[in-house]
Design a protein that fits this description.
single chain, 326 residues, mainly alpha, Rossmann fold, Tyrosyl-Transfer RNA Synthetase, 2 domains, 7% strand, binds tryptophan
């Protein structure tokens, strides 16, 4: 049986942080061995909240370098920019007729964004971006979409649109399933539930050792553990969440030490810094290597865009044929 296909993507906002890795990238890297994978740099999606496009290309390249440094393999996972494959916008137009404005207005992820960014009057394109995302997924007939929790409502919209298209014009598209990561989202250094560059509470994949040390030193811990030997509560401490991910062998010992008061926050943070640095060290090395070999990085993109274009063409011919738009 043919391998199932994955399509997933991220908005290019420049260098990635550990939250991106834990929430999505790690999953992509594992799944590329099981699935036929396609990964998209969602540059048009950036326009929903930012019209200054002067950095989009550089941000896209920075993100691509992080993908590669973390272990996405271009042989297994073509990577490409959404804006370079014109079929995305073509399919998006057709799909936009298959969903009501009221349905899009009910989307909780878009509602949260409108609230968080304090948007007074949402644009037509912003409201409809899950439809563009649907075209991203279905153009490649993605069966599975590995994303974070916040993207699940969008994948549900994709399923509805796929069903609607297939009913109207005949079977073309699969109904894609979201594939969540095992690890919940990583909290930010300030204790916010979400790590985010704009909240300035993130550890970047490209941060050097000293930077990480400094960031962790300032990280929020259990407010009840004021002095070194006070007993602490690992379950409320974000540093402990990081230990869970980056020091899995030592978590029991760390939790015991924290609870009993034997382990102080300063030492605990040092251990955490070491764990994160150990994890990031090979990624950092690979990143430097890639930064010194930009021709290779550009080739990866050109190759990915070539492969994506072939599939996009094929799907659009099928769509046009079914719709008798030949
Ligand atoms: N909307 C996603 C985000 O904001 C990015 C994205 C665009 C995406 N197209 C996609 C994710 C297709 C999965 C599949 O992060």
């Amino acid at each position: 049986m043919a391998k199932k296909r994955i399509l997933s993507g991220m908005r290019p906002t420049g260098k990635l942080h550990l939250g991106h890795y834990v929430g999505a990238l790690e999953n992509w890297i594992q799944l590329q061995n099981e699935y036929e994978s396609f990964h998209l740099i969602a540059d048009y999606h950036v326009l929903t909240t930012k019209l200054d496009t002067s950095e989009i290309y550089n941000d896209s390249i920075d993100m691509l370098i992080d993908w590669l440094a973390a272990g996405l393999d271009p042989q297994k996972s073509p990577m490409f920019r959404q804006s370079q494959i014109k079929e995305h916008t073509e399919l998006y137009l057709i799909f936009s007729m298959l969903i009501t404005a009221a349905r899009l207005e009910r989307n909780p992820t878009v509602k949260d964004q409108v609230r968080d960014l304090n948007i007074q009057n949402i644009t037509y394109g912003h409201l409809g971006y899950p439809v563009l995302q649907t075209s991203d997924i279905l153009l490649y007939k993605g069966d599975a979409v590995p994303v974070g929790e916040d993207q699940v409502p969008h994948v549900e919209i994709s399923r509805e649109i796929a069903r609607r298209f297939n009913q109207q014009w005949g079977e073309v598209f699969p109904e894609p399933e979201p594939k969540l990561t095992k690890f919940a989202r990583l909290p930010g250094l300030d204790g916010n539930a979400k790590m985010s560059k704009s909240l300035n509470n993130a550890i970047l994949l490209s941060d050097d050792e000293e930077t990480i040390k400094g960031k962790l030193r300032k990280a929020v811990t259990d407010p009840q553990k004021l002095r070194k030997n006070d007993p602490g509560r690992p379950e409320v401490c974000l540093v402990f969440t990081y230990h869970n991910k980056f020091n899995p062998e030592d978590v029991d010992e760390i939790a015991d030490g924290c609870r009993s008061g034997a382990l102080g926050c300063v030492d605990c943070k040092m251990k955490c810094t070491d764990g994160i640095n150990k994890f990031l060290s090979p990624i950092r090395d690979k990143r430097h290597e890639l930064e010194n070999n930009m021709n290779y990085v550009k080739d990866v993109l050109a190759d990915g865009e070539g492969k994506a274009k072939l599939i996009a063409d094929k799907t659009m011919s099928e769509v046009r044929e079914k719709m008798q738009l030949g």
